[in-house]
């Protein structure tokens, strides 16, 4: 299954925890209007929100970053040192 876009992932995490947008915005210390626009994909996610959301929803920040298409540098380094893993990953998990 493909990783959803970050805005969908954030909304899904919030909803799965039974939090309203206003509750989450308050807990994250962000303006509800900003969080609403982020969850609709109309505003980019700040690094600060990404970090706070990671802590708040208890998910790795890397999972959120992957939804933005950002691959951790250590994973890039591994793949650069072992390019054969690209083929192995595609065979094992399928190509997009």
UniProtKB/TrEMBL annotation:
Stretches assigned to the HTH cro/C1-type domain: 10-64
One GO molecular-function entry: DNA binding
Transmembrane segments: none
UniProt xrefs under Gene3D superfamilies: lambda repressor-like DNA-binding domains
InterPro entries: Cro/C1-type_HTH, Lambda_DNA-bd_dom_sf
Pfam families tied to this protein: HTH_31
Alphabetized CDD domains for the sequence: HTH_XRE
Protein name: Helix-turn-helix domain-containing protein
Lineage: Bacteria, Bacillati, Actinomycetota, Thermoleophilia, Solirubrobacterales
